Amino acid sequence: MIVTSGWYLTLAAVLFVIGAIGLLVRRNALIMFMAIELMLNAVNLTFVAAGHRIGTLDGQVAVFFVLVVAAAEVAVGLAIIVAVFRQRRTASVDELSDLRG
Amino acid sequence: MVDAVLFVIVATTAVAGALGVVMARNPVYSAMGLLATMFSLAVAYVVHLAHFVAFVQVIVYAGAVMTLFLFVIMLIGVDRSEDTSESLPAQRLLVILLTGLIAGIAGILFFAVGFEWVGPDPASLSPSGTIEALSTELFAGWLLPVLSTALLLTISAVGALTLAYFRPTRRTP
Amino acid sequence: MAESIWIVIAAPLAGAVLLHFFGRWLGEPGSGWLATLTVGVAFGFAFTAAIPFFQGTGEPQSVVLYSWMPAVGATFELLWDPLSALMALVVTGVGGLIHLFSIGYMHGDERFGRFFTYLNLFVASMLILVLADNFAVLFLGWELVGLCSYLLISFWFTRPAAAVAGKKAFVVNRIGDLGFVVAVMLIFASFGTLSFSDVFANAPDVLSAGGAAAIGVLLLLGAAGKSAQLPLHVWLPDAMEGPTPVSALIHAATMVTAGVYMIARVSPIYELAPTASAVVAIVGALTALFAATIAFTQTDIKRVLAFSTISQLGYMFMAVGVAGYVAGAFHLMTHAFFKGLLFLGAGSVMHALAGEQNMHRMGGLFRRMPVTALTMAVAALAIVGIPPLSGFWSKDDILAVVFGQGDWYYLLWALGILTATVTAFYMTRQYLLVFAGRPRWEEGAEPHESPLVMTAPLVVLAVLAFFGGLVNTPFSPGLEHFLEPSFEGVTVSHPSTGTLVPLAIVVLLAEAVGVAAAALVYLGPVAARVRLLGRVRGAWEAIRAGYHIDELYAAAVASPGEQAAVWAAFAFDARGVDGVVNGVARVVGRLGATVRPLQTGYVRNYALGIAVGATGLAVWLLARGL
Predict the structure, then answer these.
(1) Contact A99 C601 (CB under 8 A)
(2) Greater confidence, C508 or A47?
(3) What pLDDT digit, counting tens, does each position of B68-124 carry?
(4) Cα–Cα distance, A76 to A79 (Å, whole number)
(5) Fewest beta carbons within 10 Å, which of B39, C116, C213, C606?
(6) Are the C-beta atoms of residues C284 and C316 closer than 8 Å to each other?
């Protein structure tokens, strides 16, 4: 069986779905963040595989930028979680539900 | 043959790591799972001749981002187990339904097209993702975005610093 | 000369504008003199412009001042012919004398300047009315005098009675104006123009008998409102709340005569509608007797004169209803003289007694106020109709014209005779109560004669009331010749001297009866009077209350109107309209409350929402793609 890009794309899709479900199910802010990272990685894999199939370097260029933005996002996001933890002494996002109707 | 074996290894590790992220009680275990996934993905990048991206993945993502995660876990001290009962009504149910839905759609697609849902690969290979090739591409056509990302990183660093040093003023109740 | 006739209007109008801005600065009595001056200028100019008509050589002339909307007949054009000249002279002449009187009467009032602003504005408005050459300008003047009447009746607006009276006058006028406006619309629909010359020239060709009758009756409605005829007379007695010069000028000499003038002016249409003219005459006769009976039950000196005015206006309507336009205009003129004089005299008396209006608290004023007493005697004799004073000539003219119609008009003539008797009675009664007998006024009041600025107009008017009738005796019908150019095509019946003399004697007899009866009752002992009153108390009180017509209107018209207003305000508006508005707000609120639970505050719920949406979008895109 020839391993085509389709296989890798499917893998990426599976990883993405697992990450999404993890985001929806877990309460711990840190673990939710890690699920987000998982989703970003899945997207990166998609980009690389698709770019390789098409035959240009555009996929890898996109991955480059996604990587940078993810890194920046992680820095700021974790800083927020730390700040919130200092205030509320909890890492559970369910406790942070004051903005409600 | 080699491709298939490679793929199986990569896929297994990645999925196992992903499941570990989502299902582990201990956040440190989740971090470990994520690390495994990232390493396997780096291998996948190499398979696709994206060498530079693979390097960056290991160095930045696995090396810096995950380290940051572990630091924060240590800082916050969340090593206790988390309560497993779902506090939000209908959330779990809806998530299960959603998963079923997605699985169903995926199944339908697969049965219709098979794994060949993308079609056979073209004969010629894409250019190798070496540093020279990628940097030529980046700095030739994508200079402005690259510099913007530099700015972005600076801003995020400053932002993180600000948030870290933020001390809530004491308010009398 | 006649091309500049607009100066007659411009002078008092300029006076009104100047006084509006500078009245307070001019103060007393400067503003009064300025107002009198403008009216005097108008009089002088009108007199000069009327000289050709005096000589019998003048031709009616139309002057177009400004063509605003010719398509709908709205041009500002004036007509200068003998009829409008007569009206203009009466308005400015008598008006000027009343302005002079007011300088003394309104002394000390804190809104002195504003009073003269309104008075000048009124004179200007009345002149617009009488100088109009089309129905649009006529209506403009018509409405303006109504406005001025309202402003002047409620001049002392801090008194609730005055404010209410002003409102009542305006509203009742409005009812009449409805008839007027509909008539004007009918005229425009029939003729396509509103200009007098076009309308009157083509009237025989354009109007059917029915159409002319309809227009005639509708115009009568308007005239009845303005001239206080049945059934729209109720505002005039209440209008006595205004200062006495206002009562003299507007509600005796000029504004109330606008209805008579209007009917006379529209004579070509009435000539085509004998039915409408008959209605006019009947209304006039009935009103005359009706008002006269109420007049002799009143105790307020001004209300007697108010009802007297309504009664005399009835005479004028009777006249123009039988095509006696000259007789009607003649009585209009003499009435302006003697009624104006009566009102000013009453004002003089009130001024002397510090505002007392109840005749039972007057008496014995002859010696204290000789000038007022003598001039009022002249006026009283004139209105009763004693020769050779003016009232005799004009009243007999009217009665003669009515008699000359024959048939059932004899009935109207009889009503006129009866009215003359009652007129004589109440006038004598008033004079005796005020000037004769023993003083019944308050202790401490020191009545004395009024200052010259007030007595001079009295004297002038007395002279006019005495000799004014000589302009149109059957021996030398000067007025008739004067007005000939205005009433071409109208045949005036001239009863022979053989008929006239007996008629005059009958009238004189009727009047003598009235005078004698009043003298008997009111020169006699008070006790006899009281006993007499006791026997007719019920009827007396009913008549005194105006036959309860005011109450009738209140119950039939005002009350339902008020109920409708209450319903509209509290039921429809508060519950209906507000209910809808509040209901909408409530619905929106409930909608919001229903949707609000979606905002749980939990990030994971929101993430789920995003996931569901994204999945749906992906499915949709795939479905389209496949």
Answers:
(1) yes
(2) A47
(3) 999 998 888 665 555 556 666 677 788 888 888 888 888 877 777 665 555 556 655
(4) 5
(5) C606
(6) yes
Residues C585-596 have a mean pLDDT of 92
Taking CA–CA distances from A27, the nearest residue in chain C reads C604
Q: Which of C253, C257, C249, C252 minimizes the C-alpha distance to C226?
A: C257
The size of the A-B interface in CB pairs under 8 A is 231
Q: Where are the beta strands (DSSP E) in C387-489?
A: none
The neighbour count for residue C166, using CB atoms within 10 Å, is 23
Mean pLDDT of the B159-168 span: 81
Contact state of B22 with A25 under an 8 Å Cβ cutoff: yes
| pLDDT band for position C1 (cuts 50, 70, 90) | low
Q: How confident is the model at residue A73 (pLDDT cuts 50, 70, 90)?
A: very high
**What residues of chain B, 79 to 98, have a C-beta less than 8 Å from chain A?**
82-83, 86-88, 91-92, 95, 98
Interchain contact, A94 vs C608, CB within 8 Å: no
Q: How far is C170 from chain A (nearest CA, A)?
A: 59
Instruction: Return the CATH number of the domain spanning residue range B1-77.
Output: 1.20.120.1200
Structure tokens given for B123: 């004969």
Instruction: Confirm if C337 and C238 have CB atoms less than 8 A apart.
Output: no
Cβ-Cβ contacts under 8 Å, A21 against chain B: 22, 95, 98-99
Interface with B, mutate which of C598, C608, C610, C626 (most B CBs under 10 A): C608
Question: How would residue C533 be classed by pLDDT, with cut points 50, 70 and 90?
Answer: confident
Are B91 and C605 in contact (CB < 8 Å)?
yes
The whole-angstrom separation of Cα C449 and Cα B10 is 129
Is the CB of A8 less than 8 angstroms away from the CB of B48?
yes
Lookup result for tokens 């009758």: C213
pLDDT tens by residue, C153-167: 999 988 888 998 998
Considering the entire predicted model, what is its pTM? Answer: 0.69
- CA gap B136, B144 in Å, rounded: 14
Which residue has 């020769």 as its token pair? C387
Q: What distance lies between CA C325 and its chain's CA centroid?
A: 19
Q: Do the Cβ atoms of A93 and C603 come within 8 Å? A: yes
Considering only the beta carbons, identify the residue of C602, C611, C618 that sits closest to B88.
C602
DSSP assignment letter at A92: B
Q: What is the pLDDT of residue C89?
A: 92
Nearest to A20 among C601, C603, C611 (CB): C611
Q: Which amino acid is at C206?
A: V
**C594 part of contact set with chain A, CB < 8 Å:** no
Close Cβ partners of C395 (under 8 Å, ≥ 6 residues apart): C315, C331, C385, C420, C507
Q: By C-alpha distance, which of C15, C252, C7, C240 is closest to C119? A: C15
Q: Which residue has the tokens 């336009």?
A: C325
Q: With the CA atoms of B101, B106, B108 and B114 taken in that order, what torsion angle do they form, in degrees rounded to the nearest 10?
A: -170
Burial class of C583 by CB neighbour count within 10 A (0 to 12, 13 to 18, 19+): exposed
How would residue C504 be classed by pLDDT, with cut points 50, 70 and 90? confident
- Cβ atoms C402, C409 nearer than 8 A: yes
Query: What ipTM did this prediction achieve?
Result: 0.89
* Shortest CA gap C614–chain B (Å): 11
Mean pLDDT of chain A: 87
Is residue B98 within 8 angstroms of chain C, CB to CB? yes
pLDDT digits (tens, 9 = 90+) for C123-141: 999 999 999 888 988 999 9
What kind and span of H or E run contains C217? helix C209-226
State whether A97 and C597 contact (CB < 8 Å). no
Residue B72's alpha-carbon distances to A79, B33, C531, in angstroms, are 9, 17, 118
Structure tokens at C577: 């309209």
pLDDT tens digits, C438-461: 787 776 667 778 888 888 899 999
Partner-chain residue, chosen from A3, A30, A53, that has the shortest CB–CB distance to B7: A3
